[in-house]
Design a protein that fits this description.
- It is built from one helix and 14 strands.
- By secondary structure, the chain is mainly beta.
- The strands form two sheets. The chain has a seven-stranded antiparallel beta sheet with strand order 1-2-3-4-5-6-7. Strands 8-9-10-11-12-13-14 form a seven-stranded mixed beta sheet, covered by helices on one side.
- The radius of gyration is 17 Å and the shape is globular.
- The protein starts with a strand and ends in a 10-residue tail after the last strand.
Length: 191
């Protein structure tokens, strides 16, 4: 859910609820549509359910180019650069760049748990038909490539959903596959 907070501030929230695990992730940021860039202010992630519960909160100080992180056990800081996005907000920057016609490969700096990571993306040149419970969408394939790992994450994003994902697939190095598909939205119309 994307919600305006006023004064060019936004909040993007993602909730995933299942029988075994619930996650809530949100980002509060300023948006620059001219450069397809979020300036994050706060990011938080909470996971509860089977296994180990996890929480993480990041607070951004752009004047000092620092992030303060708190995981419920310890607080620490690390350096960021002027182009650093957060884990959730960077998906909007990615979608904006694809919507503007950017294809091929590019990278985005993202504040991670304890450092800034440079994420590499590859955008396909042509549309694909992606079937979901809501219908079939024309979508572009966007893959996150990793130099140091066999893991592969692929998103299919569609203009019919405001360039947000209609499907996501993640394959671990050992071959385990995880897949998410769009079940409902208030904006999308399948084609």
């Amino acid at each position: 859910v994307l919600r305006a907070l006023g004064d060019n501030r936004w909040r993007l929230e993602l909730r995933v609820e299942s029988f075994v695990l619930d996650t809530v992730e949100y980002s509060e940021f300023r948006w620059d549509g001219q450069t397809c860039h979020t300036t994050p202010e706060r990011y938080a992630y909470t996971r509860k359910g089977i296994g180990r519960n996890k929480q993480l909160a990041l607070s951004f100080d752009h004047a000092r180019r620092l992030v303060t992180r708190n995981d419920g056990r310890e607080t620490s800081t690390y350096a960021i650069n002027a182009r650093t996005e957060d884990k959730l907000g960077h998906t909007l920057a990615l979608a904006c760049r694809v919507a503007r016609g950017e294809r091929g490969t590019f990278d985005i700096d993202v504040a991670w748990d304890r450092d800034v990571r440079n994420l590499d993306y590859s955008v396909g040149a042509g549309d694909e038909n992606v079937s979901t419970p809501l219908g079939t969408f024309r979508a572009l394939r966007v893959s996150r490539t990793r130099v140091d790992s066999d893991r592969v994450t692929t998103l299919w994003i569609s203009p019919a959903t405001g360039w947000q994902p209609v499907q996501m697939q993640h394959t671990e190095g050992d071959g385990r596959l995880f897949q998410l598909r769009l079940l409902e939205t208030s904006h999308a119309q399948a084609r």
